[in-house]
Structure formats: C-alpha cells, structure tokens
Amino acid sequence: MQRFISSLLVVACVGIGSVSAELTRGKVFDRFITIWLENQDYAKVVVDSSIADLKRQGILLTRYYAHTHPSQPNYLAAIAGDYFGNNHDDWVRLPENVATVVDLLEDKNVTWSGYFEDVPGPGYMGNASDGSTGTDGWDYVRKHNPFVTYDSVTNEGERLLRLESFDDFQRAFAAKQVPQFVFMTPNMMNDGHNTTLDFATKWSHKFLQPLLADKAFNERTLISLTYDESETYTEPNHIVTLLLGNAIPPALKGTQDDTFYTHYSMLSTLQANWGLHHLGRYDVGANVFKLVADKVGYTANKDPENLPTVNNSASYPGILHDDPAVRLPIPVPNTKLVGAGGLGILPAIEAAWSGPPTYLTPYDGSGRVFDGDRNPPVYNTPQGFSS
Ligand SMILES: *[C@@H]1O[C@H](CO)[C@@H](O)[C@H](O)[C@H]1NC(C)=O
Ligand SMILES: *[C@@H]1O[C@H](CO)[C@@H](O)[C@H](O)[C@H]1NC(C)=O
Ligand SMILES: *[C@@H]1O[C@H](CO)[C@@H](O)[C@H](O)[C@H]1NC(C)=O
Ligand SMILES: *[C@@H]1O[C@H](CO)[C@@H](O)[C@H](O)[C@H]1NC(C)=O
Question: pLDDT tens digits, residue range 360-371?
Fold first, then answer.
C-alpha cells in the first residue's frame, strides 16, 4: 500500500528561492486555481462576449450545477463535500471533526491558500469588511469565504494565515510562488454580486490575462472560473464553469465538455489528480472533470440516476438549516468508500469519527444528487449501500 501511494507522487524541485522547495506533481496539473463569481444563469453567461473570448482558450463545462440557494451553502459544499442543510447566508460554524479539502491536500504536501479580495488581514473571521471600492458597503463577506466556517481550519494558526488578500496573491504570482491549490473570491463588486453580469465577466477577463500569458506559470496550472449559483431560483441551478490555463492541451482549447458536474467535482478531480484520500461525504462519486478522468483512467462518470426529479434550489435537512424542525446532527462520513484518488477515507477523518461499529450515513458514493424537495438524503449503514 505504501509503495502504491508513493508511486503516485513524484516530488520535483521548483525554482530556487521558492517558499516551498518541493512540488507534489499531479497527473494532469500541478496547480489548481478556482475563481468564484456570483449569481448568474448559464444561458445569459454563455453568450457574454468576455466569456466567449475566454472560452476560445479553454473548455466550457456545459452541464455544471450548483447545489442550492443562496450563496453560502455552495461555498461550504465546495471544500467539505456537504453543505450540512445550510439554506441561508448568516454566520455559521462547524466543529473541529468536520474535515475539508485542506486536510486532504496537507496530507500529501500540496500547498494551498484562499485569497479573498478586500479581506482586512490574514485569517480575518469577521462577517464583512469595507475595502477598496469606497462604497461604504461590504466588499469582503464571510459568506463567500467557506474556510472560516470550519473549526478544523480556524483552530490552527498556520491554516488561518493561509487565508489572505488579493494583494498577497499578486505578490505570490510575481514571485512565482503561487501555492498549488488556490481558492479566490473577488469582492462584492468584481464578483458581480452588487454589480452586473457584464461587470464581473469584464473584470474576470482582465484579471485572467496575466495568468493565461505564456510562461505565467512554470508548472501545469488548471484554472476554473465558476459561479456559486444561478440567479433564477425557479429554474435548475445551472451555471457556467470554464476550465483554463496551461494544463489544457492545445487540442482541447475551444472545446466543451457535456458531463454532469457540481461543485463536488472539484474535490473528486483534485483527488484523482493528486491521488488524495477522500472526505467520506458527497465528494465520493462526484464526476471527475473529463480532462482528468480520461488521463487517469477514471471510468465512473455518469449522470445521477435521479437527475430528472432533482430540485437544486431547495436545501435538504441538516444542522445548518434555519428551520429547527429539519435540523439533523452532522452525518458520519462513510469510512468504507474508495474515492476518485483510488484511496479510502483520510485516516485522520476515520479516527475522528470512530464510534460504534455500526452507524448510519447518507453518503453512498453513488453520485446521486440530493435536495430538500423530492430527493432527501437516505441514511443507511455503510455496508448497506451497494457501492
Ligand atoms: C456576525 O453576524 C452574526 C449574526 O449572523 C452576529 O451574531 C455576530 O455578532 C456578528 N459578528 C460580528 C463580529 O459582527
Ligand atoms: C510531506 O513532507 C514531510 C516533511 O517534509 C515528509 O516527512 C512526508 O513524507 C511528506 N509526505 C508525502 C506524502 O510526501
Ligand atoms: C452590496 O449590496 C448589499 C445589499 O444587497 C449592501 O448591503 C452592501 O453594502 C453592498 N456592498 C457594496 C460593496 O456595494
Ligand atoms: C424547488 O424548490 C424551491 C424552494 O423550496 C421551490 O420554490 C420551487 O418551487 C421548487 N421547484 C420545483 C420545480 O418544484
């Protein structure tokens, strides 16, 4: 087993003077940068001229869906494989035993940072802050920074210090020291929340040009430009996601990928690329970006069988729901699944949740999509699920 793990990881040296001398090579990319815009429907974004121009340099994911509304649960889901019933944007907090992508990355020495435009200082945990726009409104908002909700991040000073500003990103970029996993939230103007579709796509186009330039990165870098959720609650939560960056082979530039994806696909893709363990939640079974799935031989991508009846505008029950009648304890991760990285659950997660030998869990590894309408999560024993 140990030999299998180390064969997945080729550790290479990068430029002299780098903060971290070692780089954990991935199978398709060595760096992943995800940039989050706000609240637009697929149909409107896909015809926008800035997006059309970026699309020529990347892959358009045509069937990418957010999980629910409003913003916050989608951000929370993307890093932890569940949104825990959240259906609002107010202050929430999750205990130490809820792991995130950070635990998976650090386990394999993959460096990471979150960059939040107009955050007043590293590791800021407040609700909101004014910043560069001078509008006396909220530029930085906690609801668009999922990391600070998780005690497993905030209880460790080293991790908290990795939640930095866009100025810090620009400094790292100039020094060729951008970490290997990067989560970026622009401020409330640039992400389109308080502006327009066009404002945010123009900002994105401009922001991305230096990152897409020749020699911008020495390492293979995959960039995802995504939206947290759609604008129209009465329609399926269909959003645009574009994959960009020098990790995209020339033959795939300007193409589209019609596989079904959600924000959980970011987690499964990272797992497949770097051979990471999994979180034991809805990350297991989420379709892996085809660009990576094809390269690593991952063959489990498929449409969720309950897709026709899913209402991804309604949050299912859980501890972060605002209706006390549908609050449930945090579900136990499924310790029996094998993830897209070919590995089991992160051993530290299994240890944190060790309890009675039999327990119920909603995580079945099937890739089904759950909602608070006709498809509530079904709890079973890990052994009871067929996968
Ligand atoms: C953040 O907002 C919550 C309510 O959502 C409130 O209870 C809390 O006091 C606020 N924190 C700060 C620092 O303002
Ligand atoms: C991560 O880095 C530490 C310290 O350099 C090393 O002991 C460990 O073996 C590395 N782990 C992996 C999975 O490469
Ligand atoms: C954004 O809009 C909200 C209301 O939706 C407002 O409270 C906030 O001040 C605005 N922020 C900015 C930066 O304009
Ligand atoms: C989906 O759920 C939302 C929120 O409960 C509801 O307003 C909407 O009518 C539902 N849509 C469908 C198609 O049932």
Answer: 999 999 999 999
Domain boundaries, given as residue ranges, for the chain: 2-384
Chain CA centroid to CA 299, Å? 21
> Measured in angstroms, how far is the CA atom of residue 193 from the centroid of ligand 3?
8
In angstroms, rounded to a whole number, what is the distance separating the alpha carbons of residues 342 and 357? 24
pTM over 0.85: yes
In CATH, what number does 2-384 get?
3.40.720
Beta strands across the sheet bearing 59-65: 163-164, 112-116, 181-185, 31-37, 221-227, 238-244, 59-65, 255-262
- When computed from its CA atoms, the radius of gyration of the chain, rounded to whole angstroms, is 19
Pocket lining: 188 vs ligand 3, CB cutoff 6 Å = yes
Which one, of 93, 130, 162, 59, lies nearest residue 84 by Cα? 93
Backbone angles phi, psi at 241, to 5 degrees: -130, 130
Q: Which ligand is nearest to the CA of 191?
A: 3
Structure-token pair, residue 120 = 């007043």
Q: Is the CB of 194 under 6 A from ligand 3?
A: yes
